[in-house]
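ok here's the first one, seq then struct tokens
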Amino acid sequence: MTWRAANLALALCLAATPGAALTCLPPTVERAFTAAQAAREIYVPVLGIFTGFRQRREAQSVNGPDRRFTARFEGRYVTATGPGGALHADVAVTETCLGSWCPVFPPDVPVLTFLERTADGYRIEVDACHGNYFADPSPDQVKAMRTCLKSMACDDW
């Protein structure tokens, strides 16, 4: 199941009435790790900065279409023992709205996230719940990622 499908299913379940606002589980590194590991796609954990694009969507814009663009990622793979090898790559980014809520992908901010590795390179899909990336991550979030990688399992439910 993709990030988009999982978050859309959650949003639809939580928004049972027409007037209900989008409710998202607070994102955690452990939940993101578990989802990435359970996915059919291949995800790699990274820490770095996305550059080379302008933020064009206002926060909480309503019913916007998906927005696709390319951003440059400059950073490193995250490993169980510390920073991994450098990664400098163009990444296909998709911002996906969930109902009336749309994400805003932040440029030039440190991010801890998972990139999907595809035959064409890397991609990331960001939705209104921001469940798969962590802007300006704390040292505790980076430590949690490394802990998950050490045991290849995480549980914070």
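and now the second one, same deal
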Amino acid sequence: GHIISTTSGCSRSAAKELQRFLLYTIVQKQDQSKEAFLIGYGGGGTVAALVSTRMKGFPVKLITVSGILDTRVYTTYHGQDYYSDSLNPANENYLLSGIPQIHYVGGQDKDFPEAFTKDFVNKLPNPLSVQVKRLPSATHDNWLEKNFSIQDK
């Protein structure tokens, strides 16, 4: 399959550009039967989730690592201003329900605690296939130090 990963924050233009790139890559290879894996870490999880909902007609799987899946919860938790015109995966939960997902969470993540991911997943109406996988000793920033690897099993 095709793999696109991102660790950037999310704006409408960033989501649109990533979507355009992914569509171009898949169409150029004329390989629309293969699944595209959208992988995002932190704010990149926000981008990957948003782009995955815009990939109509293409098989997509969403994988996040300490992904920020609800920007309103994230900004409130960190005492930041929430911009209502920002894109937020939590506002697209009906679209996300039809996309297979794996969300890796750190048991020691204080930046986006695992409870936030679980709350996001619990709000998905009739999710197709969603898993939350926990690495107990992981913080938001030490995934590589923990010899973490994404395994699709």
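notes on #2: Residues 41 and 65 are 5 Å apart (CA to CA). Strands lie at 2-6, 36-41, 60-65, 101-106, 130-135.
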